[in-house]
Amino acid sequence: MLRRHKDADKFLIIFESPVIGIRNREIKYHKYFKKISETIKFGQIKFPHSLHSKTKNIECTKCHASTDFSKIVIKKEACTSCHHKGSDIIKDCSKCHSLQSGIFNGSIGSKKFDPDIMKSGGVDCDGCHISNNSVTRIKQNACGDCHSASYQSMLSEWKTDITAKVKTLSSLANSVKKGNINDENRTNLEWARKIISVIQSDGSKGVHNYMTFSDLLDKSIKELNKLK
Fold first, then answer.
1. pTM of the predicted structure, to 2 decimals
2. How many CB atoms sit inside 10 A of residue 77's CB?
3. Interacting residues of 101 by C-beta distance below 8 A, sequence separation 6+
4. Which residues sit opposite 13 in a β-bridge?
5. Diameter of the chain by CA atoms?
6. What's the N-to-C CA distance of the chain in angstroms?
7. Is the dihedral of CA 160, 166, 169, 175 positive or negative?
8. What sign for the dihedral angle of Cα 83, 85, 87, 91?
9. CA 22, CA 29: separation in Å to the nearest integer?
10. Where are the domains of the chain?
């Protein structure tokens, strides 16, 4: 017997009896999920929920607890059991990694900036993230693989710089008293928080577009310092 939870429209169904023929029951109750977006955020990726649940007909309990659909039990590492293999490697990265792709191409929210220097130089995602026909996170000295030995510490230096600037900007943003600022300063404060949020969500510590992030952080720090 299924009972609809008061928040069923927010993706929560509770099973009151042993789960038997669960997929048929889920299909029956998918009509309650009209408010679920076609894509949802999962970790640092844009997860195409409809594609997996409806088009690919993947069992809901592959990702969710069978007794409480608000609980996600699958780990993000499990994505690679199907993805990032064989011909799938060359597919459009932005399909799942839209935020990272946008940043790499110079888009932060609705605003446009210069693309990353690697992108401008003709290097795409696969230039850094594919090795021996498999997708991987880049190692700290990766820049030295293509450039001279002097570049081996560059990635680490970029991350250290962005991390320090984010910490400074976060401190400034948290110290601002909203009631004492005008509209222009409030806009600057909101933009500063947006930059911080994007960098944190991106997960690369600014590496996907270091020059742009470094410049934006410097400018925001300067503006918020005026509010002291």
1. 0.69
2. 8
3. 93, 94, 125
4. 4
5. 66
6. 60
7. negative
8. positive
9. 11
10. 2-80, 86-225
Which pair of tokens denotes residue 27? 């299909």
Q: What are phi and psi of 104, to 5 degrees?
A: -60, -35
Output the tens digit of pLDDT for each of the chain's 228 residues. 333 344 444 344 433 334 444 444 444 445 445 566 677 777 666 677 777 777 777 777 778 776 666 677 777 667 766 776 666 666 678 878 889 999 999 998 889 999 999 999 999 988 888 877 777 788 888 898 889 989 999 999 999 999 999 999 999 999 998 777 899 999 999 999 999 999 999 989 999 999 999 999 999 999 999 988
Distant-in-sequence, close-in-space partners of 201: CB < 8 Å, separation ≥ 6: 44, 99
Neighbour tally for 168: CB within 10 Å: 16
